């Protein structure tokens, strides 16, 4: 399989997941322990459907312990774990079978709602199966009946985790060992969508009936100030996937959803656009000008908004013209489209905020 994904501009390289890296190092470490010989490379089969060879570093070996590491290559995906060192340490154990655990820098699950049980190391189901299968294959190949203990560590994992949503999800002390296919597809929407679903599942498991969907870190920070009575788990960064996130919030039992964001993206939601990436849906200044007219704006204001360069500039023009109902109208339209998108049965509030966090408008529709 090729390591690149063709794009309009240039090919983007695939990367490899923390789960694949952990599998490669675990396989190598158990092989080293059995053979008492250090290795430089480790080849594994990836669920994506091909073999890949990982380079190994920092191999250590004694009669009772083998350890090696690899550096995670995230390809051209801007992943917080890119270049992280993934370490596997394998030792003999008295009991039969394989005992897999996380060490330094691998998080520990403290909240329900995740695919890993509370109290366990944050090694997700697919990587866990990959590691166990690879280690067992080596034990079988060398006809070894003794049990082994496998510990996956990430020396800088606790620091890396600060750049992720792990603490919000209740994963404490480090990163998660992730991946369903073994590869990281550059700028994967599937990966982001999976993280949204996981965050909503954690909110549900924490008893949240009111979910707050935001477009990013800034809008989430402002939302938390607006809704201080809600627990941290209730806040979910949906990115550009408004419709997708709404559908899953309803599916997972949310009774009320608050959408909190800024003009650029939410002016699109007000039109019924539920995927608000700038490339997918540019700002429609004709629509913004028409809403200004509905709010009582003069023709000069309407024309100025038509000629605006950004949605934020259009908002400034409406505010300067004293169109007090302008932003409430946009919020009402957005909430109605959101309710319609999921087929009703849910309350949706939309809150428009400025880049400084000031509320421009707010409206709620009961579906």
Automatic annotation (TrEMBL):
InterPro entries: CbiD, CbiD_sf. Gene3D superfamilies: CbiD-like. It catalyses: Co-precorrin-5B + S-adenosyl-L-methionine = Co-precorrin-6A + S-adenosyl-L-homocysteine. It is an enzyme of class 2 (transferase). Pathway: Cofactor biosynthesis; adenosylcobalamin biosynthesis; cob(II)yrinate a,c-diamide from sirohydrochlorin (anaerobic route): step 6/10. GO terms for biological process: anaerobic cobalamin biosynthetic process; methylation. Keywords: Cobalamin biosynthesis, Methyltransferase, S-adenosyl-L-methionine, Transferase. It holds the Pfam family CbiD. It comes from the Bacteria. Its EC number is 2.1.1.195. One of its GO terms (molecular function) is methyltransferase activity. Belongs to the CbiD family. PANTHER family: COBALT-PRECORRIN-5B C(1)-METHYLTRANSFERASE. This is Cobalt-precorrin-5B C(1)-methyltransferase. It comes from Paenibacillus abyssi. The gene is cbiD.
């Amino acid at each position: 399989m090729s390591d690149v994904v063709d794009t309009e501009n240039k090919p983007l390289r695939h990367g490899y997941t923390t789960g694949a890296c952990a599998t490669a190092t675990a396989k190598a470490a158990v092989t080293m322990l059995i053979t008492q010989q250090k290795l430089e490379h480790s080849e594994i089969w990836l669920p994506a459907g091909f073999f890949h060879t990982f380079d190994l570093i920092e191999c250590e070996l004694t009669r009772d312990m083998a350890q090696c590491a690899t550096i995670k290559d995230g390809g051209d995906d801007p992943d917080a774990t890119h270049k992280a060192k993934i370490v596997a340490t394998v030792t003999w154990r008295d009991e039969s079978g394989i005992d897999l655990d996380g060490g330094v820098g691998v998080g520990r699950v403290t909240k329900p709602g995740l695919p890993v049980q509370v109290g366990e190391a944050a090694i997700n189901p697919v990587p866990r199966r990959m590691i166990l299968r690879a280690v067992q294959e080596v034990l079988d190949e060398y006809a070894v009946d003794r049990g082994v203990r496998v510990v996956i560590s990430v020396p800088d994992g606790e620091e890396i985790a600060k750049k992720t949503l792990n603490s919000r999800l209740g994963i404490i002390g480090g990163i998660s060992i992730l991946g369903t296919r073994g590869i990281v597809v550059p700028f994967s929407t599937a990966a982001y969508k999976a993280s949204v679903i996981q965050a909503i599942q954690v909110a549900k498991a924490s008893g949240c009936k009111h979910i707050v969907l935001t477009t990013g870190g800034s809008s989430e920070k402002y939302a938390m100030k607006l809704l201080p009575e809600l627990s941290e788990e209730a806040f979910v960064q949906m990115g550009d996937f408004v419709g997708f996130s709404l559908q899953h919030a309803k599916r997972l039992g949310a009774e009320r959803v608050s959408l909190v964001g800024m003009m650029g993206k939410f002016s699109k939601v007000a039109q019924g656009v539920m995927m608000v990436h700038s490339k997918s849906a540019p700002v429609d200044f004709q629509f913004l000008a028409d809403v200004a007219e509905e709010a009582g704006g003069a023709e000069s204001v309407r024309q100025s908004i038509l000629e605006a360069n950004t949605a934020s500039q259009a908002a400034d023009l409406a505010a300067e013209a004293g169109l007090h109902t302008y932003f409430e109208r946009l919020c009402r339209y957005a909430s109605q489209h959101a309710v319609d998108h999921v087929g009703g049965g849910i309350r949706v509030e939309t809150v428009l905020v400025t880049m400084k966090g000031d509320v421009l408008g707010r409206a709620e529709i009961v579906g």
